[in-house]
Description:
Oligomer: single chain
CATH topology of the largest domain: Rossmann fold
Amino acid sequence: MSTTFAKTGEIETVGAHNGKRLRVLHLINYFEAGGTERQAVELLKRLDSSRYDVRLAALRNEGPLYDEIANRFPAIPEFTFTSFYNATAVRQLARLRSFLLRHRIEILHAHDFYAGMLGVMAARLAGVRVIASQRNLRFSDRRAHLWGQVLINRLAHRVLVNANAIRDSLIANGGAAPEKIVVIRNGLRSFPDPSVNNGPSTRNELLSELRLEGKVKLVGMIANLRPVKGHRFFIEAASQVLTEVANAHFVLVGEGELRREIEQQAASLGIADHVHLLGYRADAARLNAAFDLAVLASLHEGLPNSVMEAMAAGVPVVSTAVGDAVELIRDGVTGYLAPPADPHTMAQRITRALTNEVESAEISARGRQYVMSEFGMQAMVEKVECLYDDLAATHSVPSYQSFKPSIW
C-alpha cells in the first residue's frame, strides 16, 4: 500500500512498507524544555518499533526531557560543535556521515536548525534520505540563519512543518519547493477534563509557593525567555492591566537569557511584586490548571504548543495573532487575539478576559473542545510514520553492498 500526499502537503492516506524495519535516525539539538524538543520526545516515545528501527543522536545530550526517553535510548552519540566556521564542525560532519554509513541508516530525521544543518549535509554525503523540520517562521533575523534555512530545505528530501503559515511563507519566499513540504500539526498530550481534574489543588499549591493569599487573578505565560517570545511587551501590558485589575499576578514559566532584563523591566515599571519568574518547571503544562488566563506574546510562531496545552486544560487564552495561533483561536470565540508587539491591545484583551468571567468560561469551553478534537498525539505520530513510508517508497534505498568502514 502506497502513501500519497495532497497538493497542499497534508497527508491523505496512511501507507505501509513491506519487509524489514526502516532504520531511522533522529538528530536533535538538545533536550531542553521547548516546543520542538517536546514534540520530538513525544514522537520518539510512540513510533512503532515493529516497523521502524529508531535511533537517536543529539548535538548535546543536555536538558531534562531526555529522562523521559532514557530507558528506550540509554546511550546516544553526541555531535557537539559551537560554530559552523571551524575544524570541529568539519570533524563532526565527518563523524555523522560515518555513523550513518556504519549503522546503515535509511532516513535521517533532523529537528530544528543546527541539527538540520549538520544532518542534511551528512545525509547527502552518505546518500541517505533526510527530513528537515521547521517549526517556526524563521529561526532568527540573522542573515546567516536565513540563508542556512534555505540551504537546509534545498538539501532535504522532505521539509516537515507544523503550521500552514510556515508552509505558505516558504512557498511565497522560495524557501522550499512546494512538493517537498509536508504539514503535520503538533500532537497534543492528553489532558483531563478541567471539571474533574486537580485544578484547585494545583492552584492552591502555586498560590502557596508564591506566598499569595485572597482572591487573586493568575495570568500565566509558558515560554522560554527569548526575544522572539515577546516578554517585554507582556510585562508592559501587565503594568497597564494592573491599573484595572489590581489583584492580577503574572507568572512566567521558562528559562533563558532574558531573565535579568525582565526583572529589571518589572522593577522599573513598579510591578515587581506582581511578576513571578518560576524558571524551568517540569510540571509546566500542569500549571495551566492554576491559571485564570494564559498568554502568548510571541512575535512570530509556528503552531504554539503552549496555546494548545492551555486550551486543552480549559483555560482561556490571549495570544498574539502570529503563525497558526490564528487557526487555533477565533477572536472572541475560542480565545482572544492581539497584534504582536502591541502591549496596549494585549492589555485590553487580558483585562476583558479577567473581568468577564462568564464570557471567558464559554470561550475556554469552546477552545478545549476544538483542540481536543483536532490535535491528537497519535494522529501526529501516524502521519510522521506515513511520511517515512512515503520517503522509503519514492526514493531509492541507500546501497551498502560495497560499503567499507570510512576513515572519516
